[in-house]
Write a structure and sequence with these properties.
By secondary structure, the chain is an alpha/beta fold. It has one domain: TIM Barrel, CATH 3.20.20.70. It has 11 helices and 8 strands. An 8-stranded parallel beta barrel has the order 1-2-3-4-5-6-7-8, surrounded by 5 helices. Helix 1 packs parallel to helix 2, helix 1 crosses helix 11 and helix 7 packs parallel to helix 8. The protein is globular, with a radius of gyration of 17 Å. The two termini are about 25 Å apart. The protein binds 2-phosphoglycolic acid (PGA). 2-phosphoglycolic acid binds next to strand 8.
Length: about 260
């Protein structure tokens, strides 16, 4: 195992307008004042319309948090009504882009092929994908969890070259744990994150896979972050619901210091 910089990402989904976004970040900064969270990356993924206001706030207040987007289009520009491209995000200081979140896969029909095109576009634009993979409850119960995740990784990373392992983050998010309050046990999460890393080893080579950060996502809360982060193959968390509460997200980010 190697040293990997922990990474905590807040995925706000379709919540908060641009004014509420400012309030949320201000409250988060207040709760984090004096907390030791510099030895890790903190990424905020607000809705597109709030990126600009959050960017301005992070810059003006010099807050050590990075900006992420929740999705993108795979083309740089063109007649794609309603879409947002990677170069547009890059100009807003966005560092990370979620790719293949289970809601995008389920509700918007994103296949591994679509996710693959997005991952390539994100890399081409110099941004970092947070590639989301995870099995459904039915797939888990039929013993296919590892196979499903393996196939998603292979499909989504086909033809993607990663020279700097910092440039790719993989989020393992069991679909049955997202927004349900049902978290995978630390053992199960570890087992799956280790399987993700093993598969990354065969796709990208072991030295690279050893340094790629793997997050766990699915009902991460202040009360379970520590045990999850204590697992050897879990390098961070992708947080949905709890990232909308400045207090909870601050506790998650500062979990090393708090008694949450
Ligand atoms: P949740 O969402 O933390 O609300 O379960 C996680 C996610 O969708 O990334």
């Amino acid at each position: 195992m190697s040293e990997r910089l922990p990474i905590i990402t807040g995925n706000w989904k379709m919540h908060r307008d641009h004014l509420e976004a400012i309030q949320l970040v201000q409250k988060l900064a207040y709760h984090l004042e004096g907390a030791d969270y510099v030895g890790q990356e903190v990424v905020l993924c607000p809705p597109f319309i709030a990126l600009r206001s959050v960017q301005t706030l992070l810059q003006s207040d010099r807050l050590p948090m990075k900006l992420g987007a929740q999705t993108c289009h795979d083309q740089d520009e063109g007649a794609f009504t309603g879409e947002i491209s990677v170069p547009m995000l890059e100009r807003l200081d966005v560092s990370y882009v979620l790719a293949g979140h289970s809601e995008r896969r389920e509700l918007f029909g994103e296949t591994d092929e679509v996710v693959n095109a997005k991952v390539k576009a994100i890399r081409k634009g110099g941004l970092r994908p947070i590639l989301c993979v995870g099995e459904s409850l039915e797939e888990r119960e039929s013993g296919r969890a590892v196979d499903v995740v393996t196939e998603q990784l292979r499909g989504s990373l086909a033809g993607v070259s990663v020279t700097d392992p910092q440039d790719l983050v993989v989020a393992y998010e069991p679909v049955w744990a997202i927004g349900t309050g049902r978290t995978a046990t630390p053992d199960d999460a570890q087992e799956m994150c280790a399987a993700v890393r093993a598969e990354l080893g065969s796709i990208l080579g072991e030295p690279t896979a050893d340094h790629v950060r793997v997050q766990y996502g699915g009902s991460v809360k202040p009360g379970n972050i520590r045990t999850l982060m204590a697992e050897p193959d879990i390098d961070g968390a992708l947080v949905g619901g709890a990232s909308l509460s400045s207090e909870d997200f601050a506790l998650i980010v500062a979990h090393r210091r708090t008694n949450a």
